[in-house]
Amino acid sequence: MKELNFISWNVNGIRAVDKKQALRWIDETPVDFLALQEIKAELEEIPKSIFDKEFFELHVNSSCKKGQSGVALFTDIKPIHVETAKDVDILNEGRINEFHFGNIAFLNVYFPNGQRNDERLEYKMAFYERFLSHCEALKKEGKSIVICGDVNTAHKEIDIARPKANENTSGFLKMERDWLDKFLSYGYVDTFRYVHGDEKDRYSWWSYRAGARGNNVGWRIDYLYVSEDLKDKIVDAQIHDDIIGSDHCPISLKWQVL
Q1: What range defines the domain where residue 27 resides?
Q2: Residues 183-232 pLDDT 10s
Q3: Are the C-beta atoms of 219 and 205 separated by less than 8 Å?
Q4: b/e map of 72-89 (b: 16 or more CB within 10 Å)?
Q5: CA 138 – CA 32 distance, rounded (Å)
Q6: CA-based torsion, 113, 68, 21, 30: positive or negative
Q7: How many CB atoms neighbour CB 236 within 10 A?
Q8: Among this protein's residues, is 150 annotated catalytic?
Q9: Pick from 173, 242, 167: nearest CA to 202
Q10: CATH number at residue 22
Q11: If I label 236, which of 9, 122, 207, 251 is the partner at 20 to 30 A Cα–Cα?
Q12: Helix, strand or coil for residue 191?
């Protein structure tokens, strides 16, 4: 049985994690797709020292605003099509790598954060809708879908340490959580929940304040989704909360090819 290994991590600055040598574990880890979000860098600014492993393909989508957002995708798999989904990322904030191989469309996404102000929350919700429409169009073309990234919303109460205290905070608003319900109803599978069910106290992001990570006061806002036709190929899905270097931790999916 051949497997593909997907790893997703919001690094909160790729140059910052390089200074901490926080990506060196990649050298010892089986990975076919390494998808990073919030790299805050241009292609030429990505340090060569982040790990020794060499990938044949590196696709970077940087924000038009220097030092913000940005996504990067490392892989040895040859694509048949690569793009940045400009119909979704209409402000050119460097939020999507779209990579097609075989009949799969793989999307590495850094979804907007809505906490800054009402305008950004409105943009986040519109981005969500454009993204769903984009994925549905890909499915109509016959593509199966794999999605990873920082979705910036905790879906259920089980996905956040303090649900009551955050019910009026963007990232746990009813409208945001309702959209995730809607998204899943279109035939997408949360791979972590598919494997682990209602396992509690599993988070992927912690505030830098008040010792949140040490006390595991976190949010699960990073996800790996697959379209429903791929769910039977899920071998494993994990949250790697032992890996430090960012306010997020990596997540992974092991997926059966043959």
Answers
A1: 3-256
A2: 999 999 999 999 999 999 999 999 999 899 999 999 999 999 999 999 99
A3: yes
A4: bbbbebebeeebbbeebb
A5: 22
A6: positive
A7: 15
A8: yes
A9: 242
A10: 3.60.10.10
A11: 207
A12: helix
User: At residue 115, what is the residue type?
Assistant: Q
- List, for residues 39-85, the tens digit of each pLDDT value: 999 999 999 999 999 999 999 999 999 999 999 999 999 999 999 99
Residue 109 and residue 73 in contact, taking contact as beta carbons nearer than 8 Å: no
Contact of 81 with 100, CB cutoff 8 Å: yes
Domain count of the chain?
Answer: 1
Confidence at residue 219, expressed as pLDDT on a 0 to 100 scale? 98
The per-residue pLDDT for range 200-210, each reduced to its tens digit, is 999 999 999 98
Annotated catalytic residue: which of 18, 150, 159, 190?
Answer: 150
The answer to whether 6 and 256 have CB atoms below 8 angstroms apart is: no
What distance in Å separates the CA atoms of residue 258 and residue 256, rounded to the nearest whole number?
6
Give the helix/strand (H/E) hosting 196.
helix 191-196
Looking at the DSSP bridge assignments, the partners of residue 248 are 205
